[in-house]
Batch of 4 targets.
Target 1
Amino acid sequence: MSQLIEKLQEVITVERSQFLLEDQDGILDEPDGWPRLEELAARLPENSWFEATLNEAIFWSEAPWHDIKVTLELWDGPPPEDTSHWTRSKNAPFYSSSGIIYLSKLFDSNSPLVPMDLRKEASEWVIRASSRPGSGWIWPDEESPPSGIEEWRIQFWPAKGINLDLAHIPHRKTI
């Protein structure tokens, strides 16, 4: 049975109904055979609400501008299915060159607040993105984005089966 290795929570601002997950190495063209981020973004929102590729994943949110709570989870193998707790859930392949990932706003180049160390470089992963309605709109100040609209969970596990060593690999210094 797969084990949860690490769990992080972060609040990120959705812009133009989108937010990103990025590897600290940035955009790559290798290895071959992976779609470019622009191709994935063109599929949103008509054909999909979440897509992943080399060092990047893009997520389509229900509202154009708001803060969301996102939970990132690292597993040593496929986590248990619990789609009954989530309105939507989808798996996609993902490649991380550095093994250090973080959430990012669509138009923000600032350093990430909470990077996650996947503990393996140049590796393929499976991402499961899940979302559901939040506790309800909270908008105390019109200058700040509202919150409570939705919640997200993003899970990672090795694409090639269970890796029991992940729990024993120490954190690296990040970013």
Note: Residues 4-168 form a domain with the Substrate Binding Domain Of DNAk; Chain A, domain 1 fold (CATH 2.60.34.30).
Target 2
Amino acid sequence: MTSLSHWGSELKVLEDSTQLLIMMVQNNHRCHLVVECPEFWDLCSKISENVYPYSTLPLSVKQNISTALVHAGSANMNQYKDKYWQQTLQPLHHRYHNLTTHPTFTQHKHKESTILELSSILSMLQGISAASTPSNTTYLFGFLTNFLPDCPKLIDIYHGNESLVVLILELYVEVVHKQICYLKQTQCSLLCDWTMNLLKSYSNHGNTMTSSEDDITLIIELLTNLLSKDFIDFSEPDADETWSIPGAQPMETSAADVVLFGLGIILPNMNSQLLLYPELCSQYFKLITFLCEIYPEKIEKLSDEMLQSFVYSLQIGLKSYGCDNCKLCLEAIESLSTHCYKTKDAPSSLHNVVSSFTKVIDSQQDEQTKLRLSTSFANLTHDVSLLNHDRNSRTTFLRNLESIIYNIRGILCVK
């Protein structure tokens, strides 16, 4: 507590102190000792109400403290729990409500004090989201519904403020990453609706704001986290009395719809120079690999221009950005090829695009070499059920591939 109030200019000291606090409250035994300390309750109150000198702490430190406060409140506090949540979370809601509903908010929305307060609230919300666990997700999601639906409006207002845009995107990334695998279907539908509205607001201001590397990376991460629900789902079925928020009616927006819309934002900005950023590059190829594996039929619905951009990114990913990203591109092509095989009776533009990856055989001028290559590739599917894309078929295919790869290498090398 002393370091937070007396070492405000030493960022490293503050971050180490708050990380230590997080470690203490994540352990049940140590957490009980912490919450019995009067100074801890005093810290909770002053941080939530933005009392000086805690109001001047860096955003990253406030975020860490919020994470620690939620971990402490999620412990078995018995009779203290309701009082604790009321003392820590509700003041943050009141601060946001008082700020955005004040009669002078529209007039003073770009004042430094307003932006600082909003930045502080968004950072603390991100810290709250980071502390999500299976036991507290439902409560925290209900609390966050006081803020998440308003974020598209905040994008409309502050689209010219890069730091606030990043904070809003980071909040959504954290919420989806930490909570989506525990949310019920009704809650997921609401979250998809809000995410779609957020991306639409971001897209609407594309002509007046420049999409930075940070923006694109966060959007890609957000879309990837949305798709993770199809891989990992720990949620319980919706009860008969459907979980709901007063006034909130979930639309028929699926995660795939949100991801496809997000691709429309990403692809026009994606180029070989932007992919030189390692984190962005890795996130992008993970996203398209997941999308091709889970929803290959959605790729067919891309416009011709988007489809060409999509395939071009796969082509350059095969040869320009390292082995790991090349592997992801090959997995994406595999998923698309499998889908095309299953739908070969109803060919689409996707079939033509995927066929562009088979030029290694067609480009051979020597008829004997072409025949030997064709025979070798035909052996790939020996004893493999292409229609049943199961684990056994994949294992057999990989075994066949290993046995013929040396033969193909010899064919291409020997003149």
Note: The first helix runs from residue 2 to 6.
Target 3
Amino acid sequence: MGDEFECPFCHIVQDFRSEKRWRRHAFSDLKPYVCTMGSVECDLRLFGDSKTWFEHELQTHRCTWVCTLCRAASFRSSHAFRAHVNDVHPDLSESQARVLDQASRRALDLIPALDCPFCDEWEQKIRADMRGTQTGTMSSSASAAEVSEHQEGVSETESQNPVDVIVVERSQFRKHVGAHMEQLALFAIPPAMDSEQGDSQAGSNAAMQSAPDASSEPSGAELVWPPDPPLHLAAFRGDVNEVQRLIDDGADLEAGGETWGTALLAAEAGGHSQLVTLLKLGQSAASRDGHLESPMHVPPSPETRLGRLIASSLLLTGIVGTGAYGVVYSAVDTRSSIRYAVKCLEKFNPDGSPLDQRQVAGQTREIRLHYLASSHANVVSILKTVDDVDCIYLVMKYCPEGDLFYNITEKGLYVGDDELCKRVFLQILDAVDHCHGLGIYHRDLRPENILVTNGGETVKLADFGVATSSERSEDFGCGSTFYEPPECLEPKGPYYYCAPSDVWALGVILPPASWGEKSILKLSKDAFKLWMMMRKSKDKYLVR
């Protein structure tokens, strides 16, 4: 390794500096990994790396379900969990039940060794090695290194009681089963790929990709597609950065492949709408200019979308607000005259470049968590999502009376009315408690993200743009400074806990409601100043 040579599968000249890198590249071309669960919908899925393959099995098949609404005992199948939802939560709609199904999945940490679909010897080998270790003797067929390798990741309970089912950690299961599939793929490689005559009849991928002789007559044989180029693989995986790099390097968007046909179809098969948009823009640029260029799409200004009709009948009529994570429009259904709020999440950055994987994951997380929390009366409901070419629209219930900040500082709605303040704040507490019960942490609680309806009697929590399902976070500074707790303003460790962060923000929101005027700004700033003063004089202000 270390010399440049042409890969026999994808015909890309690369410099592989280690055998590990070469194997990883070769297997990405061979796609040896397949779903081993025997599910019909997974029969045609091929994976170019073991991590993606096994993540699919963990998220789709090798998992349990723990209801996030009632914390019921775990269920071993989607069918059993759906029966639980129908019995215990019959009021959920079909779409809400699907979201709950996804949110309640927990990947298995331990997997029976007997589940290996390729061999029966693995469990027997582990048992033999465990018996040999327990008696102080070593099986003649296994070395100490082999015993160590097999027992690494084996459940401690199973080690003490080998009569029970032997289970292993999922990382070891992936390594073992993946090795079987890699070996099968290597067996399939023709032995004469580098024939000096160059006329190998072994049917290799390189031979299939070679062009037919123009002078030959059509044989009527079945058309053989060339192997999938790297662009197809990256598009199917949803790797935005890799697709962009390949396009910049001149990858052919129209090139065919054996699995999906084109890169665009690969992205559609993988369910990556942003990449579908990116590839369509690239094809349009190539056909217009006669050559391939990196597709760019500068998002329009918020005003440009006014008057646009989405979902066949929803007309965007005004701008409610703008923020770092999207624009919120007012809209009206042209058929029913019902008004809605529509949040627009851009698929492209202001400079025209596509969102990276982290940004796409953030949008997906916002939609999923907000949709899951929508079942509460004091959370703004997401009614549906609309996936457009350049953005994703979230259609929500419209709250025309504005946010809590406006109602406190401009209208003085709650000034001196302690009973009303109490009722409203209890609604906020109830909504936050509901979210925390689902494992959702808002991380940006402030009056601007609480909407008012019913003449001030009802409030609703909104904007889950930075919400997370992680109990602790390393993402400091994602909320608003004056509502952040001390551990976020001056970190002492690598992470902070998200639930206490929400509670701190609630404490800053409560008092100004009955004070009126601009006191809400003063209190939030005073809370910040108080923390700064306590930080400088710990012995005076903090009781140990």
Note: Confidence is low (pLDDT under 50) at residues 137-163, 192-225, 287-294, 538-544.
Target 4
Amino acid sequence: MDDDNAVTTKAFMAILGCLADELSESGLIDHASLDARLHATAELCDETGNAPVGSYLRLSGALLLQRHLH
């Protein structure tokens, strides 16, 4: 993984972690499921060197839905 991509992946994981915290605190997703998803996402980032955009979109979409419903 090149330096630019490593920084992008770290930034992506930081954003994903913030979204995950909000989803957990809102009760929209349980902690065990969230931990498993984040672990799998981190492994995918490590293996491919790419931030999986689909994971970000699913979590951010769930957060937006939760905010809209409350």
Note: Residues 3-26 form the longest helix (24 residues).
